[in-house]
Amino acid sequence: MSIWVVIYARIPVGIYGRMLSLAIGFWITSVPALLISGVSVEARSLVQADVFFGTTIGSYYLYLSHQGLIQVALIFTRTIATVSCLYFILFTTPFTELLQVLRRVGCPVVLTELLLLMYRFIFILLSTTSELWIAQQSRNGYRTHQRWFYSLSLLISQLFHKTMEHYRQFVLSTAARGFNGEFRVLSSQRYRPSQRYAIEASIGCIALIILSF
Questions:
Q1: 3-state DSSP: the chain helix, strand, coil percent, rounded to 5?
Q2: What is the band of 92 on the pLDDT scale with cuts at 50, 70, 90?
């Protein structure tokens, strides 16, 4: 999947690496809880077979678990695999095309419309946040710690107000255009299946099936 994203889709390696680092960061936060276990000193003999390395602290015996190492490795591989597949879809497929596919496979209209609205308002939220942040920065709103907290609280309140205002404008604009309860997305492109990509995908799936056995 990384080859398809970086080489075929020509997504910059730096951007793809930073996106993967987010998932790896969440994985790292779960590593200590999976690796480190503890029991009382009296029960040390019961877990000796699972101990990779251990030490006694007070009345407790802390140790690195063999089973925990296996779980950490399994979660890491699954995390990288699933996130790579997700990023491949996000980086290579326009959101409108994803909605078209979801509707063709029978996904409820309510769900696709919620996804469309969320996708639209994410960019509205980011744009509004950027405008407010620049306005506060130009007025030295973050020069001290006290002003920093005050400006942040003001930013959040103004952000909510402006977002609701954008929402009301959006409702009025859709009603003025004769909105009948369903958003229709135009898909002007027509795609033809690639024999090369189909062969490569089939080889990859067969290899994964063989490795799973």
A1: 75, 10, 20
A2: confident
